[in-house]
Amino acid sequence: MTPKQKFCWLLGAVVLLGLLLRLGVGWQLATFNDGRNSVFTPSAQTDLKTYMTLAAEIANGSFQGEFYYQPFYYAVFLAGLYWLFNGSVWAVVLAQTLLGTATIGLAGLSGARLGGRRTGLIAALLTAFSAALVLYTPFHQIATLQAFWLALLFYLTLLAIRRNRCRLWLAVGLVAGCSILTRGNVYFLLPGLLFVLFRRQFKTSPPHRRRDNFRRGGVFALLLLGGVLLVQLPFIVHNSRIRGTLTGPSTAAGAVLTLGNTPEAPPGGREPGLPAGPMEYPRLYQSWMATEQEVSIPRRILDWAGREPLAFLEFQARKFLLFFDYREIPNNVSFAGEGTQAGLFKLAVASSGLIILLALAGLVWLLPRAWQKHSLGYFLLSYFIIAYAVAVAAFYNLSRFRAPILPILAVAGAWGLTVFWRKRRQGRRIYWRYGLALAFGAFITFAAFDYYRSFLESCVMCLVRPNGVTERLETGEWMQLDHGPQTFGQWVGVDLKSGMKLVKNFPPLTAAAGPAAEVEITFLASKPGRLQFSLNGTDRTVEFPAAEFRSGLALKTARFPVVLNAGNDLTLAVKSVAGDIAVLADCQRDYGRSKLDGEALGAEWVMRLFRPARP
Question: What is the pTM assigned to this prediction?
Answer without folding.
Answer: 0.96
